[in-house]
Amino acid sequence: MTVSTRPAPAFVPSPAPVAEAPRRRNALLFRRDPLLLDCGQPVNNVRVAYHTYGEAREEATLVLHALTGTSAVHEWWPDFLGEGRPLDPARDYVVCANVLGGCAGTSGPSELPQIAGQDAPLSLRDMARVGRALLEHLGVRRVRVVGASMGGMLAYAWLLECPDLVERAVIVGAPARHSPWAIGLNTAARSAIRAAPGGEGLKVARQIAMLSYRSPESLALTQAGQRRPGVPAVTSYLEYQGEKLQARFCERSYVALTGAMDAFSPSDAELRAVGVPVLVVGITSDVLYPAAEVRACADQLPRATYWELDSPHGHDAFLMDPQELPERVGAFLRG
C-alpha cells in the first residue's frame, strides 16, 4: 500500500449545475434465469431503479450510494457531479442504481422471498450481482467504482465479486467489514424498529445513526444552544432527522441493509487478492468507522493509496465538508 503525500492538483469546480435533472429509469432483470441469493433463495423479475448521466458508453463510472441514499446522485453529491467535477457527464458515463432490498424503486423486502415467515437475508454480494446484471443490460463492459459509507463497503463487494469488470475503485469512509462497535449500533437500531414497528422505531434508529455519523466536535459546532425554548438544539435536530427519514424510508429495508452490512466479512486473503488500484479515504473525526480502522483494511489491498480527509464533522464529512476530496477523487479516476 502507498500513502499519498503529493499535493493535490488544482481543482476549480464549475459553478453551473447539471443542466437537466435526469429522470429515474427502471429495468426488469433476471426474467429468465433467476438471481440466486447467497441465502439460497432464487429470485426472478428483479426491478432495478437507476439514474444515468452522460452519453452511454461501454466504460462507465459506477456510483454506489449510502444506506439511506438513492440513485439520484445530483441530489446528494453536488460537489462531485457536474461539469469540471470528478463525475462529469460531458466526459463520463455515470451510473447509479438503488440497491436490492432498498425502498427507492429497486425490488425491496416485500417483493423478495421470505424464510420461515421472515424476510430472507440479503448480502452485499447479492447487491453487486444485481448491479452487474444492470451494467450488462446497459451495455457497460468496464467500470470505475466510487462508493462512500455503505457504498464504500459495497465497493469492496464489487472488487471481490466482479474483478473482471472493475478497473479501479474509490472507497470513502468505509471499512471492509464491520467492527463490534458498528454491529452494536446497527443492532440497537434494529431493536428499536422491532420494539416500535410502524415508524416510531425507525425514528429512533435514525437518531442512533445520526449520532454515529457526526462527531462530538461537530455537534458542539453546529447543535449548541436551543432552537426553541427549553429544548436543546441537538434534541430538535435528532427529532427532525428521525421524522424526515420515517417519511421516506422503509423499516424493513433498514433492517435488511444494515443486516447485509453487518454480515459482510471478507478475509484478509480475499483483500490481498484484489489486483486493481484503489483509493481509500479515511476521515479523521469519524467515530463510526475510525480512520485507523479504514486504513487497516486499505493496508491489505496490494495497490491501495490511502488519504485522510481532515474534518471535525465525522463520518458525514464526505457529504457536508468534502474540502479536497473531490479533487483527490477526480485525479485518481483520471489515473
Task: Write up this protein.
With 335 residues, the chain is of the alpha/beta class. The protein is 37% helix and 19% strand. It contains twelve helices and 15 strands. It has helices at residues 73-76, 124-138, 150-161, 180-195, 200-213, 216-222, 233-248, 251-263, 268-272, 291-298, 317-320, 325-334, and strands at residues 2-3, 25-29, 35-36, 42-43, 46-53, 59-64, 94-97, 114-115, 118-119, 142-148, 166-172, 226-228, 231-232, 278-283, 304-309. Strands 1-15-14-11-10-6-7-5-2 form a nine-stranded mixed sheet, sandwiched between helices. Strand 12 and strand 13 (231-232) form a beta hairpin. Helix 4 runs antiparallel to helix 8 (251-263). It is globular. Mean pLDDT is 94; it is low at 5-18.
